[in-house]
């Protein structure tokens, strides 16, 4: 008999680094897919590609005005997006490229879904509402990338967190080597994370020994940041798109929710983060 509870514990990250919706819903569903993927000997990157397919199908359905079906396939894409990392941890196939590939694929299908939604509703929106949607899209990218940066910074303070990161000179050297080998697609993937690092990441710190209270402070703040991750935004988007069956108002409420409450929450987290960093460096 398959011990799904044990698989779940092996497959998830530290609780403080897990987004709420991921931990209590999406990963709880994804864990039941892992035995199937392992039996079929699927690589985690294959699951990532499947999530891309589901995300693109969701985008097409929304563009064709099948909002409920599109929302369903979007939820499937999110579940598969959780499943790929879980499969990687259970099978020991974690790596910097897999993490980067996953993030890049997410960006593709999420952007496609937003674009499909925009094309459907643009004729019904005022110019001001279009601006709100664009600003909400930019806000979502910033929120998600900053959450990833904060989590990475904390991981890099320690010698081993079971995650794989490349940064700084090692990343630039790898990009240079890939170009010399004419592996331009791989070089592009790593350039994306290099670009993200330059814009959003704190300078990498050398591994240090943190006291128990310092660990607790970092973990509490990383957990606060989890509400600015991808799943929080995508759950809001799913609810808004499903509401398009009845009117434009639900999806507009989502844009305003991302633009105002979540942005204020982001600023609050940034201020707490700066105080913590300054205190750690003093």
Q: Can you offer a commentary on this structure?
A:
α4 (44-63) runs antiparallel to α5 (67-91), α8 packs antiparallel against α9 and α10 (212-225) runs antiparallel to α13. With 282 residues, the chain is mostly helical. It is globular. The protein has a single domain (4-281), classed as CDP-alcohol phosphotransferase transmembrane (TM) domain (Four Helix Bundle (Hemerythrin (Met), subunit A), Up-down Bundle). The protein is built from 13 helices and no strands. The model is unreliable at 159-164 (pLDDT under 50). It has helices spanning 4-11, 20-30, 34-39, 44-63, 67-91, 96-121, 127-156, 168-180, 184-200, 212-225, 230-243, 249-259, 261-281.
